[in-house]
């Protein structure tokens, strides 16, 4: 198994993407530490992992609270021996389907502020522990999105949030490489399974994600989990400071 014996912390572990990544990590032998602000969705993912023979722990942790995050990271390290993988996948409160000029400043900036704050707090706490170990992997969810404005029609500050986190990934990778810590972005271009059927403007958003692709489809939750496993494993030991493109060809690197 690619992640046998590894400890992975996932903030937002009860969400669609966090749950998919958690299940994939556990399938490959990692002990998964699922964090979130609500117990029920964490328990649902953890129960699924355990039913499949995997190892999962849950904790109520607000990824926007520096003290809570730092304390939890230290508890994981003390109780399980290491913090090997960190992935911030919390919901950022983005508003989509409303044109930018009709959107409030609060709605526009919320995903930007939330993404930057949570990624800063979680990466800082994990990296401090990983630096002591001399190894670790921090994964980010983002990407520059390419240059086609049609793909980003009416998604508010969400794309700005993704790009900002991607810039933070570059900085962290440069600063942490000497300690054996890798920092990598997974760039999906959008995962349709995360959009509820009644999501405002869903059809337009779905079309803007799929139409530019070369493969005629978007990345799936399974794709995200599989790629995350590889990037977190020693098989990807030479990959850092990179954005791994799983946009199905919507963006040509």
SSE order and pairing:
Blueprint: E1 7-11, H1 16-27, E2 31-36, H2 39-51, E3 55-60, H3 66-80, E4 85-88, H4 105-133, E5 136-142, H5 158-176, E6 181-187, H6 202-210, H7 221-232, E7 242-245
Parallel strand pairs: 1-2, 1-4, 2-3, 4-5, 5-6, 6-7
Helix pairs in contact: 1-2, 1-7, 3-4, 4-5
Account of the 3D structure:
The chain is α/β, with parallel strands linked by helices. It contains seven helices and seven strands; from the N terminus they run βαβαβαβαβαβααβ. It has helices at 16-27, 39-51, 66-80, 105-133, 158-176, 202-210, 221-232; strands spanning 7-11, 31-36, 55-60, 85-88, 136-142, 181-187, 242-245. It has a seven-stranded parallel β-sheet with strand order 3-2-1-4-5-6-7, with helices on both faces. Helix 1 (16-27) crosses helix 7, helix 3 packs parallel to helix 4 and helix 4 packs parallel to helix 5 (158-176). The chain is globular and about 50 Å long. The two termini are 30 Å apart.
């Amino acid at each position: 198994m690619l992640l046998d014996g590894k400890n992975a912390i996932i903030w937002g572990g009860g969400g669609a993407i966090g749950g998919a990544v958690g299940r994939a990590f556990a399938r490959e032998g990692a002990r998964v530490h699922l964090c979130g602000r609500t117990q029920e969705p964490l328990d649902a993912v953890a129960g699924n992992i355990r039913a499949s023979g995997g190892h999962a722990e849950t904790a109520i942790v607000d990824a926007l609270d520096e003290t809570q995050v730092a304390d939890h990271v230290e508890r994981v390290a003390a109780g399980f021996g290491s913090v090997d993988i960190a992935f911030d996948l919390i919901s950022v409160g983005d508003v989509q389907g409303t044109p930018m000029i009709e959107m409030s400043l609060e709605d526009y900036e919320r995903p930007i502020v939330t993404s930057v704050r949570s990624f800063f707090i979680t990466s800082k706490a994990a990296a401090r522990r990983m630096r002591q170990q001399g190894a670790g992997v921090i994964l980010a969810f983002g990407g520059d999105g390419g240059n086609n404005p049609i793909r980003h029609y009416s998604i508010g500050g969400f794309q700005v949030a993704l790009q900002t986190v991607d810039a933070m990934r570059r900085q962290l990778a440069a600063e942490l490489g000497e300690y054996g810590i890798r920092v990598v972005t997974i760039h999906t271009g959008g995962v349709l399974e995360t959009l509820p059927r009644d999501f405002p403007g869903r059809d337009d958003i779905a079309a803007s994600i799929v139409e530019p692709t070369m493969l005629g489809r978007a990345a799936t939750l399974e794709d995200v989990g599989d790629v995350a496993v590889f990037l977190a494993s020693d098989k990807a030991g030479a990959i850092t400071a990179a954005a791994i493109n799983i946009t199905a060809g919507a963006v040509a690197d």
